[in-house]
Amino acid sequence: MTAREQWDSDADDAGALWWRWAVIYQIYPRSFADSDSDGVGDLRGIIGKLDYLADTLGVDAIWCGPLYRSPQVDFGYDISDHTDIDPVFGTLEDFDALIAAAHQRGLKVIVDFVPNHTSAEHPWFAESRSSRTAAKRDWYVWADSAPGGGPPSNWTSEQGGSTWEFDETTGQWYLHSFNRAQPDVNWRCPQLRKAMLGVLRFWLDRGVDGFRIDALHMIAKDPGLTDNPVRENAEPNPTDRQHPDFDSQWHVHDRMHPDLHDHIREIRALLAEHSARTGQERIAIGEIEAMPWESWVSFLGDGGTHFNFNFNFVETPWEPAALRAGVEEQEAALPAGAWPNYVLSNHDRPRLATRNGSRSVRIAAMLLLTLRGTPTLYYGDELGLADLPIPEEKWLDPLGRDQARATMPWTSRGNGGFDSGPADAAPWLPVSDEYLRLSVQSQLTEPDSVLNLYRRLLALRRSEPALRHGAFRALDLRAEQCMGYLRSTRRQELAVLLNFGDADTTVGLPGRGRVLLSADVPSAVAEHALRQRFLVRGHSGLLVELDDVVPRQRDA
Ligand code: GLC
Ligand code: MG
């Protein structure tokens, strides 16, 4: 898209391009709200919070983590029935009610699609493992021992150790890129592909607006099972709980096989067919590893995903130069017409406030909601929550990811309003005093709370076209601890000024402007004067509307 087209795209705000302008809110269903007080969040719980999401907070779409029937070894990413809701979350009727209630409020609903593997308890796998000649043998990846014995290749799983598990029944190994309870399916098998597309169709027919596609870069592997090259002297990444063994080899043969793009094209064609039929764009969001931008963008495009999660901010040092480089690299790498995305936290990584300290959360809110691209907000980040510290012996997830999945504190007492009445069971994760202190209820009454900063930013993102689709240009502020950029449409130019340092700093803009929003505490400094130089407080930021860089035609 040319800059000019970008400027002119205001008209499409609510139409086919909704996914560009929408702010997506990630719900971890176990932890959001528990309607039946059994200790685990559920669909009726989410329905009860839609007013909070649509009106109090002001997001446009929700992405709910996996709700399907599952033994919950990987908390739902191990699916044993793709077309049913796990009883812990409710029923298919509850799901239909969620879609209806969300759509009534103008909220889109995105669900997970997990194409790389199923649960070992899936009936498909039961049949596949039953004999070498079983009808569904080929639906999973089976192989003989290596010539000298042992696993068929040196591939390591995301969680460490071999990807291969020996199965006594048939004397072959099956592949599991994650936990051994999650056997990888075989996308080279046409019947499997057909079944997986049928799963997508099932949820499209129930009205979902899109899919977040799990581990999309892994769905095709080298059919020759070539060993991966070993990676010398790799340093483990401390922010990366999810991949303890990721760095021990170059995953060139078990991930990113080029054939996966054929499979994505099939998925996209199905979505396109459905979108055309219903007049509503249904989207595919790729969850793919952080990888060189050129590989990352290869997933995008007409036959590819609508956008991919961009984990750059999760993995980059929290410093202005590194963050700016990440933004500019993504902008430069995107092919024409493609669209950026930003993720600050998710259910796999330590929370933002834990990674970068609690002082980072205001600047992070401004970055997420003022950059060009679809913002993805992880539940609880709008409260500035840090991880809930859980000692290792109490981890329910083998990788300790439950620390970033604690229950949402709605109120400041008891279980934080997570359950709806006298609790039958304690919440599945403990509730801390710190979480109660940061509850939704308490932050709504504090004008300068992080939650109120998010609410102000979200309201501005709705009211200011330049924030939704304006072009991005970095500013050279001549202050190392600061980051600044412009967002411009033909009618409006906004500047974002962020100070990552402790010291207050004055920076200059290319033209004069007025402060639209300040992230300072207290925020009461109503600074409406027209000026060219601005004092940006440490660990805070300003959003400035420029008055004289481009001619103002807005009120004309
Ligand atoms: C994705 C999910 C993660 C899960 C894994 C296996 O990375 O985000 O939670 O464990 O895939 O499905
Ligand atoms: Mg419940």
From TrEMBL:
Keywords: Glycosidase, Hydrolase. GO terms for molecular function: alpha-amylase activity. It comes from the Bacteria. SMART domains: Aamy (SM00642). One of its GO terms (biological process) is oligosaccharide catabolic process. Coiled coil: none annotated. Transmembrane segments: none annotated. Residues 224-245 are annotated as: Disordered. Residues 26-405 form the Glycosyl hydrolase family 13 catalytic domain. Residues 229-245 have a biased composition (Basic and acidic residues). Gene3D superfamilies: Glycosidases (3.20.20.80), Oligo-1,6-glucosidase, Domain 2 (3.90.400.10). InterPro entries: GH, GH13_cat_dom, O16G_dom_2. Belongs to the glycosyl hydrolase 13 family. This is Alpha-glucosidase.
